[in-house]
Amino acid sequence: MELINIEGTPKTPTVTMNPTTGVVEIKGRSIPENSIEFYKPVVDWLDEYSSNPAPKTVVNVQLEYFNTSSSKCILDVFKKLEQIKQVSADVVINWYYEEDDEDMLEAGEDYESIIKVPFKMIEIVD
Amino acid sequence: MSLFLNECYTQMNQGEVIVAYKGCINADIISNTLNLIESKLDESVPNTPIRKKLYNVLVESLQNLFHHVDIPPDLDIECDSNFGVFILSKVDNSFRIATGNFIKNSKAPILKEKIDKINSLSKEELKDFYKFVLNNQTFSEKGGGGLGLIDIARKTGNKLDYTFYDYSPEYSFFNMNVLINE
User: Fold this and answer.
1) pLDDT attached to residue B82
2) What are phi and psi of B133, to 5 degrees?
3) Fold of A4-124
4) Which of A49, A65, A96, B170 is deepest in the core (most CB within 10 A)?
């Protein structure tokens, strides 16, 4: 499987996905008008990865902003992780939020209540 | 026609205006507007959580204009995309985001019903409603997730104030105002 490395833009996040280490990172801003188009390769990659995942999958999500159109796609990404967890038990989502950003913490908690994958809420302190 | 729009625009224009825009709405205009506002907010809003909340609501408001717009055929404005009005202003201790767009009268009752429902919900109920729509509703063909208005109400903690101005037998001008408390 290929390593994925999508460079971030003012409207889309940096995405790196490594099939060997099992580390996935989504970082930056996710506010595109058409988020389905942006997230399709990410979801497709996870789909392929799910057939032969690394022993441990660690997903780091560190978003400054995301729009509601992205929130659906992020849920799709997390649903794929739920499937991967059924194959290889060790999957964790690290949800980063900036100090005092209660909206971002709450967004993480919303996902945590929907998705059956362990979440770790990590506060970034300046 | 422009007289009609000017009247709507005047009614929307309140407080100390930071950015006001009336015209075509496309992805580039949204990006440019967001960049402009972001640089202004960096200087004028020192509180990071409020600035982020404001920016988030701005993104949703502008993208709502992008995704949900009907243009009356007799509108004497040439747009290859959508047409909308957007005003960010400071009113007392709040930021006010006013948006306006045309809507087919046939769609107005559904929108009104949705906003009234959102306005009737408590903070906890809004959270549950958001999660329900997030998990159960599929994307509309334009890519909207049906979550924008719920998210705006949730993030601002304020009611969505709205007016439908009669334009023609088939179209209305829909104006929505939201406040973000500083």
Assistant:
1) 85
2) -65, -40
3) Transcription Regulator spoIIAA (3.30.750)
4) A49
- The residue range of the domain holding B131 is 2-181
Q: What would the two tokens of residue B71 be?
A: 């243009």
Domain ranges of chain A: 4-124
Separation CA A68–CA A95 (nearest Å): 17
Which of A12, A65, A68 should be substituted to probe chain B, the one whose Cβ sees the most B Cβ atoms within 10 Å? A68
CA angle centred on B139, ends B130 and B29, rounded to 5°: 95
> Position of tokens 């949703």?
B60
What pLDDT was estimated at residue B140?
Answer: 58
Report in angstroms the alpha-carbon separations of B89 from B51, B62, B95: 14, 15, 6
Contact B147 A71 (CB under 8 A): yes
User: Confidence class of residue B69 from pLDDT cuts 50, 70 and 90?
Assistant: confident
Q: Which of A59, A115, A92, A60 is nearest to B135 (CA)?
A: A115
Residue B144 has pLDDT above 60, yes or no: no
Residue in chain B nearest A115 by alpha carbon: B135
Q: How many CB atoms lie within 10 A of CB A79?
A: 17
The alpha-carbon gap from A45 to the nearest alpha carbon of chain B, in Å, equals: 21
Stretch A7-24: mean pLDDT? 96
Confidence of residue B59 (pLDDT cuts 50, 70, 90): very high
Number of structural domains (chain B) is 1
Asked whether the predicted pLDDT for residue B71 surpasses 90, the reply is no
CB contact under 8 A, B139 and A10: no
Beta bridge partners of B178: B97
Phi-psi region of B23 (alpha: psi -120 to 50; beta: other; left: phi over 0): left
Report residue A48's pLDDT band, with 50, 70 and 90 as the boundaries: very high
